[in-house]
Design brief:
Pfam families: LacAB_rpiB. D-ribulose 5-phosphate binds at residues 12-13, 70-74, 103, 113, 141, 145. Belongs to the LacAB/RpiB family. The active site is at residues 69, 102. The protein has one domain (6-150): 3-Layer(aba) Sandwich (Ribose 5-phosphate Isomerase B, Chain: A), CATH 3.40.1400.10. Helices cover 44% and strands 16% of the residues. It contains six helices and five strands, in the order E-H-E-H-E-H-E-H-E-H-H. A five-stranded parallel β-sheet has the order 2-1-3-5-4, with helices on both faces. Strand 1, helix 1 (16-28) and strand 2 (32-35) form a beta-alpha-beta unit. Helix 4 (93-103) runs parallel beside helix 5. The radius of gyration is 14 Å and the shape is globular.
Length: 154
């Protein structure tokens, strides 16, 4: 079991059902969850919700984020426009764990049309349970690479 975290979750219209299920599941696990919307399946633009999610991760309001859309691709692109955020699109738990361990991802993205509820929960568990490999090592190889992402390659 992991420590309780502040987690923000957002989707587009294609993923509102999965978002609600994951939100409720995370709350049952003891996390503080901010649902950034949307509330209904009425058509919305995924970049709006991806940008909103990225903002609350970047400003520290939430420690981790969950981004959902039909495929997971569009919203992950939107979230990654913010240099303070590292969003990984995943389809199974091993890639979710590696996203944390090697890339220090702070947001996970999944596609509601591609990923079932049980698999999404398994991915989210792996994402939340895995620590960054270089958490205590300022000179570690993964830390160096992740820092380049935030510093635009310098």
């Amino acid at each position: 079991m992991w420590l309780a975290m502040r987690i923000a979750i957002a989707s587009d219209h294609a993923a509102t059902d999965l978002k609600a299920e994951l939100r409720d599941w995370l709350i049952e696990q003891g996390h503080d969850v901010a649902d950034l919307g949307p509330e209904t399946g009425e058509s919305v633009d995924y970049p709006d919700y991806g940008f909103k999610l990225a903002e609350v991760i970047a400003d520290g309001t939430a420690e981790r984020g969950v981004a959902l859309c039909g495929s997971g691709i569009g919203i992950s692109i939107a979230v990654n426009r913010n240099a303070a955020v590292r969003c990984a699109l995943v389809t199974e738990p091993f890639s979710a764990a590696l996203a944390r361990e090697h890339n220090n991802a702070n947001v996970i993205a999944m596609g509601a049309r591609l990923t079932g509820s049980d698999m999404a929960k398994a991915c989210l568990s792996a994402f939340l349970e895995t620590e960054f490999a270089d958490a205590g090592d300022a000179n570690g190889r993964h830390r160096r690479r992740v820092d380049k992402l935030s510093n635009q390659g310098s």
